[in-house]
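Quick start: what a row looks like.
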Amino acid sequence: MADRWTIRGAEYGNCNCDWGCPCQFNAPSTYGRCEAVSAGHIAEGHFNDISLDGIDWVLLLQWPGEIAAGNGRQQAIIDEDATPEQREALRKILHGESTTPGATHFFVYNSTMTSVLETLYLPVHFEIDVEARRARVEVPGLVESTGSPIIDPNSGEEFRARIQLPDGFEYDVAEMGTASSISRGDFPLTLENSYGQFNFVHMNQDGLIR
């Protein structure tokens, strides 16, 4: 019998593109390359009969050109509190395994990778408020990322914008913000005041559940 899984929770992403990210509109990226930190919290989930409730994860992603051109690098980090069974189950999901081809962003990302680094199991601290456009990610000594609202330069007030993708494979609606990230070790990245994305996710092996 084929693996069946479901995850529901919140997700955050920071890439090097300008606010809004042209990739969300099938347009070329801002700088002709992509670097990103993504993180998520599974409020409820399972992989077959294995519960995934409460697990946090991080993905580090990098492409030298456009994502569709491939030749990317990827590394997953799963919270160390996950059991061995939970670790393997979530590793499969994050790498697009046990998934209908093309059905999730995890599958699509992985299909463009030339190098997939070994999955790490470390403390992952993740806080997010999607509607407030705020998030914080920390893997001590390895990853730090902070997301916040865009500030209107004229009024000094928080500026709110959303992207809605009725046929998207990652989300239906995402709040927009600004974000900065640093990662160290085998996957160094530095992102500063660039695209921040805050969204809820509910999906299974066949894609988004609407």
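That is the whole record. The longest strand covers residues 189-204. The mean pLDDT is 97.
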